Amino acid sequence: MQLTDSIGRNINYLRLSITDRCNMRCFYCMPEDGINKKEHSSILSYEELLLIAEIAVELGIEKIRITGGEPLVRSGIVSFLEKLAKIDGLRHLALTTNGLELSRLADGLHKAGVQRLNVSIDSLNAQTFSVITRGGDLKKVLEGLDAAEKAGFQPPKINCVIMRGVNDSEILDFAEMTLSHGNSIRFIEYMPAIKEADWQRYSISGSEIMERIAMRYTLETMDKGAFAGPSRDFKIVGAEGSIGVITAVSGHFCSDCNRIRVTSGGEAKGCLFSDEKTDLLPYLRPSNSERLAEVLQKIVSTKPERHSISDVGYNHRNFTMSQVGG
Ligand code: SAM
Ligand code: SF4
Ligand code: SF4
Asked: Which candidate, 96, 37, 22, places its Cα nearest to that of 65?
């Protein structure tokens, strides 16, 4: 089966957030004192998350990415992933993590059937890393990367939010990891999710990032993989890893969007920046698979054509990425 939205986009990718909690406090993602955590009872149980995933796959979803908050802080995650990986028809299972708990869990994640890891690292300098994450330990994250490879994963993809005056001086250092370590890097434009005062000062466009790399290295464009989302992908000639840019704010890549999201509290969203969401709880407690399938189909058929955050005068409601799943 294939899920197609109203403008013909094939929607084959579900981002499933399993918790709104996190063991870091990245300043661009959540306020210093954290967020109002949801009551335990309003977080979807693993059984509920599995049911959503099974129905989504029946409808045409082929790739699921587990995210959060920080997914590795939720206990029982490995056995949940084992069950998820066994869903008939699911072709790709990936997970995005800040890497702090990776040393402990990499082996279990690999055995459970996770095929790809994305690790978010915004600086290779311990001090800058600690400032961005409000206390995160870079050494632990880098140990997690090693543990992932020892467990049998390909070198994890690195997600890096580039912010002017904060970490933009490290663009080339990250790009060089595609040569020295074989990691693929995805540079993400800073998004004004929590709408900090004067947020524009951090903005640096995907094209500027690529120009800076192209001044040092010869780049070749890459074909998009089967489940590629809205990133533009390049390679330094001779490198093992690729370099992608997610021009979430400056670029209008929404025409290639292939994703929907479900938050840990059970809200389904067709677009990260849309205020539109549908509460799945009425169809989960008690569970009603038929209605759930209808609602997920509706999320796809009403998926917005594009975001409007860069339009003059547009005012989106602020949100924390950790609650929506990034
Ligand atoms: N905790 C995990 C992590 O950090 O990888 C998974 C959840 S996090 C919300 C998912 C992704 O969203 C991360 O790569 C993070 O850098 C990104 N993100 C969060 N807030 C962002 C923002 N304001 N602009 C751009 N990317 C953001
Ligand atoms: Fe936590 Fe990830 Fe948000 Fe950082 S980006 S605060 S690690 S959820
Ligand atoms: Fe897809 Fe919305 Fe992101 Fe555009 S802004 S790529 S439509 S989720």
From this structure: 96
The Cα 259–Cα 300 span in angstroms is: 9
Q: Can you spell out the DSSP letters for 92-109?
A: EEEEEE-STTHHHHHHHH
Q: For every residue of 111-136, which 3-state class applies, written as one string?
A: HHCCCEEEEECCCCCHHHHHHHHCCC
Instruction: Report CA(325)–ligand 1 centroid distance (Å).
Output: 7
Higher pLDDT, 4 or 197: 4
Beta bridge partners of 284: 287
Report whether 264 contacts 279 (CB < 8 A).
Answer: no
Q: What is the domain partition of the chain in residue ranges?
A: 13-157+254-324
Q: In this predicted model, which residue has the larger pLDDT, 224 or 56? A: 56
Dihedrals phi, psi of 273, to nearest 5 degrees? -95, 0
Nearest CA to ligand 3 atom 5: 307
The closest alpha carbon to 15, from 86, 64, 82, belongs to 64
Fill in the amino acid letter for 296: L
Measured between alpha carbons, how far is 4 from 60 in angstroms, rounded to an integer?
9
Average pLDDT over residues 52-73: 97
- What is the per-residue pLDDT across 142-154, written as a single tens digit (0 to 9) for each? 999 999 999 999 9
Distance in angstroms (rounded) separating the CA atoms of residues 41 and 43: 6
Say how many CA atoms lie within 13 Å of 283 toward its Cβ. Answer: 19
- Is residue 70 a contact partner of residue 21, using CB atoms and an 8 Å limit? yes
Given a contact cutoff of 8 angstroms between Cβ atoms, the answer to whether 102 and 145 are in contact is yes
The model's confidence at residue 309, banded by pLDDT at 50, 70 and 90, is low
Structure confidence by residue, pLDDT tens digits, 212-250: 999 999 999 988 766 666 678 999 999 999 999 988 777
Atom 12 (ligand 1): residue with closest C-alpha? 326
306 phi/psi in degrees, rounded to 5: -165, 170
Helix/strand/coil for 148: helix
**Fold classification of 13-157+254-324 (topology level):** TIM Barrel (3.20.20)
For residue 254, give the ligand 3 atom closest to its CA: 4
